[in-house]
Amino acid sequence: MTSMTIVRRIAARPAIVFEALSTEEGMTSWWGPADVPVLVAKADLHVGGRFQVRFRTADGLEHVCAGEFLEIVRPERIVMSWQWTVNGAPEEQESISRVELHLRAIDTGTELTLVHAALRDDASARSHEWGWSGALDKLTRKFGEARTA
Fold first, then answer.
1. Fewest 10 Å CB contacts: which of 7, 75, 93, 129?
2. Quick one: pLDDT band at residue 148, thresholds 50, 70, 90?
3. How confident is the model over 9-61, as pLDDT tens digits?
4. Distance (Å, rounded) from C-alpha 36 to C-alpha 59?
5. How far apart are CA 54 and CA 36, in angstroms?
6. 3-class DSSP state for residue 52?
7. Are the CB atoms for 17 and 77 separated by under 8 Å?
8. Which residue has the higher pLDDT, 93 or 130?
């Protein structure tokens, strides 16, 4: 198993970024790689609650990721399980992994650290890093990039 980590500085307070990470409206605005549109986002934000995001890639294929909220510390941390699904059933080659979102207040907004752990191999980690980078770039553009003085 392997993991990947991405850090972004966002020009918004942690509470605002937390809402974008955890609400259906917020998730719809940034989830998915590059210019991929979110079709549906569902989030039942409590420990044991579920989330699901469906998006369509440029090739016309629809992808669904889903999981359970494992830990919620408002507005500092969200931990969730993660699994790709096809027609509501888990993809065979993809095991359940873990996504941790850590938010830390900085002078210019929020430092967001995303850790996606328990990925099956390096190829999966690279693929998820590409996807998360595109998504977090959209999230950063939504609020602006926090610059250090």
1. 93
2. low
3. 999 999 999 999 999 999 999 988 777 889 999 999 999 999 999 988 888 88
4. 10
5. 10
6. strand
7. no
8. 130
What's the pLDDT score for residue 37?
Answer: 85
The string of pLDDT tens digits covering residues 70-111 is 999 999 999 999 998 765 555 555 689 999 999 999 999 999
CA angle 98, 56, 140 (to 5 degrees): 60
Q: Which fold has domain 3-137?
A: Alpha-D-Glucose-1,6-Bisphosphate; Chain A, domain 4 (3.30.530)
Indicate the burial class of 109 (C-beta count within 10 angstroms; 0-12, 13-18, 19 or more): buried
In the chain, which residue ranges form alpha helices assigned H by DSSP? 14-22, 24-30, 122-143
Q: Where are the domains of the chain?
A: 3-137
Counting other chains too, the contacts that 123-132 makes at CB distance below 8 Å and 24 or more residues apart are 124/2, 124/94, 125/2, 125/3, 125/4, 126/4, 128/4, 128/97, 129/4, 129/6, 130/33, 131/32, 131/33, 132/4, 132/6, 132/33
**Residue 51 near residue 66 (C-beta atoms within 8 A):** yes
